[in-house]
Amino acid sequence: QKEVEQNSGPLSVPEGAIASLNCTYSDRGSQSFFWYRQYSGKSPELIMSIYSNGDKEDGRFTAQLNKASQYVSLLIRDSQPSDSATYLCAVRPFNDMRFGAGTRLTVKP
Amino acid sequence: GAGVSQSPRYKVAKRGQDVALRCDPISGHVSLFWYQQALGQGPEFLTYFQNEAQLDKSGLPSDRFFAERPEGSVSTLKIQRTQQEDSAVYLCASSPVQVREKLFFGSGTQLSVL
Predict the structure, then answer these.
(1) Distance in Å, alpha carbon of A64 to nearest chain B alpha carbon
(2) Fewer beta carbons within 10 Å, N or C terminal of chain A?
(3) How close is the nearest chain A Cα to the Cα of B60, in Å?
(4) CA A66, CA A26: separation in Å to the nearest integer?
(5) Cβ B66 vs Cβ B81: under 8 Å
(6) Percent of chain A with pLDDT over 90
(7) Facing residue for B42 by CB, picked from A34, A92, A101
């Protein structure tokens, strides 16, 4: 079992729709959780971080964390074509950081 | 520096050749990570340093891979006797030591082994 699991997709949504991305992790001691966006040929860039159970909203993005279920999600509201990218879930159990394989999102105009 | 700097940006090696990839982290960042990213995949953890100490090297795929950070700043990832399966983007990232801190990534080195 990989430490961080994501649906590889691809996920395709129409412009203006909600995109839902999911992630599960195996290390119950994990303390910090991140969503990174990676455009083709570029390095990952941070979108959201979350540390406590519940929801955290930032603009069109909402991260959700459920430590009991070892589950993290990212919702993107009013999806735009510029959101088309690969979204990486990352988990920081202690000092290191582990990534999922990423979910490729395409937003169609 | 202003960001994490990696060099070279691109490297083409003949199979069997040794290569060295350099990472210059953000000044003052204690933690330094190396990841390998194959095309269409997420970053795979290779190794982690805290200052000059290599705390985790469990992700290094074989003994052909070696990383060092002798003075706690610049790091070098060395791959000996390169193989075609080593072709990937090698990403370096740094962060302050606190567990809640995000990683700052360099632009990566794209290694192609022919």
Answers:
(1) 16
(2) N
(3) 14
(4) 13
(5) no
(6) 80
(7) A101
Pairwise CA distance, residues B90 & B86, whole Å:
10
What is residue B85's DSSP assignment? G
List, for residues A85-97, the tens digit of each pLDDT value: 999 999 987 767 8
For A44, the closest chain B residue by CA position comes to B105
pLDDT band at A31 (very low <50, low <70, confident <90, very high): confident
3-state secondary structure of B59: coil
Q: How many CB atoms lie within 10 A of CB B84?
A: 9
- Cβ neighbours of residue A53 closer than 8 Å, sequence gap 6 or more: A65, A66, A67, A68
A92 touching chain B per CB within 8 A: yes
Q: Partners of B78 in the beta sheet?
A: B20, B66
State whether residue A31 sits within 8 Å of chain B by CB. yes
> Other CB atoms closer than 10 Å to residue B18's CB: what's the count?
11
Q: What is the mean pLDDT of each run of 10 residues along chain B (114 residues)?
A: 90 97 95 93 92 93 96 96 97 82 91 97
Residues of B in contact with A98 (CB under 8 A): 45
pLDDT at A103 over 90: yes
